[in-house]
Amino acid sequence: VYFVKFQPHFGVIYAPVDDATRTRLQTNAGVFARVVVDGSPAASADILPGDVILTADGQRIDGVEPFNEFLKAHYGQAVVFGIDRNGAHIEKTVTLRP
Asked: Contact 59/14 with Cβ under 8 angstroms?
């Protein structure tokens, strides 16, 4: 048995935005933060479970796959995320691990 300590690049397990949230936000953009990993860059930047990540460096997030590609292209860089948290728009800067 081998145990490997995994260091996530971002530290959020995310999913597509549900229909009720799309209706509330009046957009199809974004990903829903389901889990934030303790000790990750996202946790250090105070991203919380339940946040909806709408933009990354000003670019609209159009779903899970485009968000995956964005993150891969920006490993090791500081990224500003536009987030909807319970109806309030906030921005958080996260330095992704390489």
From this structure: no
